[in-house]
Amino acid sequence: MKENEINTLFKKELIRLNEKFTSQEDFFKKVSKWLTKKGYVKDTFYQAIYHREQESPTGLHTPTFDVAIPHTDPEYVYEAFIAVIRPEQPISFREMGNLQGATEPQLLFVIGFKESKDQLSILQNLMKMFQDQKVMDFYLRSNDTEEIYTTINEYLRTAAYKA
Fold it and tell me: Is the pTM of this model over 0.85?
């Protein structure tokens, strides 16, 4: 993933902090509606991402706190993106690779791919970031969208440069 690709994927308008969700389904409905309205995804995105999450959970335990990286196939996406959502309260997600395991993500990275080949690189860079306790703690504490945007962007650009 190149630096210019990072800049087109991740934008300030794609950060939502302290959002209220009553359930995982409510989360997917609201986020899908928001992304559809902004022109990033097709109307069918909600059904696709919700179904994919049921089949292949994306909740992860990290050294700092639980996260989730829901995503679906490129055919449901108009424009590639990374949306960062911090819910007011953690949302229950099943654990990736362990259908019986549960996670309570405090930060969710919803990803829309335009091409399947981009998926691995983006996920690898996010996984590196999830291991950085200082950066992850910052995301939980900060209420400044600009600071969060700058920090994530710098981290992903640095990871892309090292790749």
Answer: yes
Judging by beta carbons within 10 Å of its beta carbon (0-12, 13-18, 19+), is residue 10 exposed, middle or buried? buried
* pLDDT tens column, 22-56: 999 999 999 999 999 999 999 999 999 999 999 99
CA–CA gap between residue 49 and residue 112 (Å, rounded) = 10
In 3D space, the residue among 65, 21, 31, 71 whose CA is nearest the CA of residue 49 turns out to be: 71
- How much is the average pLDDT of 123-151? 90
Task: Compute the C-alpha angle 57/119/132, nearest 5°.
Answer: 75
Largest CA distance in the chain: 39
For residue 127, count other CB atoms closer than 10 A to its CB: 14
- CA 125 to centroid of chain Cα atoms: 12
Q: In which order are the strands placed within the sheet that holds 98-103?
A: 15-19, 81-87, 107-112, 67-68, 59-60, 93-95, 98-103
CA distance 88 to 116: 31
> How many Cβ atoms sit within 10 Å of the Cβ of residue 149?
17
Question: Which residue bears the tokens 């919700």?
Answer: 50
Contact (CB, 8 A) for 76 and 48: yes
Specify the fold of 3-162: Mannitol-specific EII; Chain A (3.40.930)
